[in-house]
Amino acid sequence: MAKNRAIRGATLNRESTRFNLPSTEADGDWLDDRDLVDGELPPPRTTVTVEKPRTIITRNQSPDIAFDRSVNPYRGCEHGCIYCFARPSHAYHDLSPGLDFETKLFAKPDASALLREELSKPGYSCRAIAFGTNTDPYQPIEGRWRITRGCIEVLAECDHPLTITTKSDRVMRDVDLLTPMAAKGLAAVMISVTSLDPKIAMTLEPRAPHPLKRLAAIRKLSDAGIPTFVSLSPIVPQVTDHEIEHILEKAAAAGARAAFFLPVRLPHEVAPLFRAWLDTHFPDRAGKVMATIQSIRGGKDNDPDFFTRMRGQGPWSELLRARFLLACRRYGLDKERFNVRTDLFRRPAGPQGELF
């Protein structure tokens, strides 16, 4: 395995052609080194650009998604998960959904101030805010920028509910905020565990914490009284599906209350990136994997339709679901829902509120 591929997810850095943008050579700083070194290129550098949005709460009306609003402190994600459905969003910045998505990150340091402003508006109606719906709120740069923590501080102050989805044990850094919120029924956490095999995890999610660290986080969060769930999303047929029962058993033993899964989705530029990843890391089964995915997705690489995009279709989809549900019942992971309260919310003081 090539050294630089071991620490990044994508094996390609092709630009997007969906928006007819001028052709550019993606990630030039890194590619310029081709003429300066023998052998492997040095690892591409991670850069962070400050983004200044006017609002921070993103709303959706998708009928197959349980939340209607979310906060994303970052664009791009250094975890480098090859299957990430957020990768195509980098094309809006004229950047590649490949390595650029993993190395050219955007941070929103004004997020907590914007959040306070939006929650203070007279017409605001409280419903749970979801973190981790696009890119991971606890990717490595959160250790320096602490934008996710700042947002949680605002929500804690005004008893506003939140849910968090992450594949990082860095969520434990905010347990001091989440524990009292959970005691009021205001917080729940979903930890993503897609494989317990270190070799698979290293290629599938190269910069995400080790799976055992994630199981340990489930235990610590549960012990702190924070409702904690496990997500097997996505299940990649012929690569990770053999681990369904084992992951659920370990998650239940760690204190997870319930579980959730999705079959892998390959929207837009994710499909060619995923195919190239298969050719690099699983050449012996690449064709079989894609054939199975297509059987789940109506004969295509991806199914964008509401509801079926979350469940899949056909015999393979039904088999995965049946195994998942049986294992959930066996390990007691089918008895609780991912719910939080909304009735305790009170609007925060505005930016000048404390002066009066």
Mean of residue pLDDT?
A: 90
CATH topological fold name = TIM Barrel
Number of domains: 1
What is the subunit organization of this protein? single chain
Query: Kindly, what is the distance between the CA atoms of the first and last residues, rounded to a whole number of angstroms?
Result: 63 Å
Strand content: 5-15%
Low-confidence parts, pLDDT < 50 over ≥5 residues?
Answer: 1-6, 22-30
CATH architecture: Alpha-Beta Barrel
> What structural class do helix, strand and pairing data support?
alpha/beta
Overall description:
By secondary structure, this protein is α/β, with parallel strands linked by helices. It has one domain: TIM Barrel (Alpha-Beta Barrel), CATH 3.20.20. The chain is 34% helix and 10% strand. The chain contains 14 helices and ten strands. It has helices at 3-7, 28-31, 99-103, 111-119, 142-145, 147-157, 175-183, 198-204, 211-223, 244-254, 270-281, 286-296, 308-311, 314-330; strands at 47-50, 57-59, 69-71, 74-75, 104-107, 129-131, 162-166, 187-192, 228-231, 259-260. The strands form two sheets. The protein has a seven-stranded mixed sheet. A three-stranded mixed sheet has the order 1-5-4. Helix 4 packs parallel to helix 6 (147-157), helix 9 (211-223) runs parallel beside helix 10 (244-254) and helix 10 (244-254) packs parallel to helix 14 (314-330). It is globular, with a radius of gyration of 20 Å. The termini are far apart.
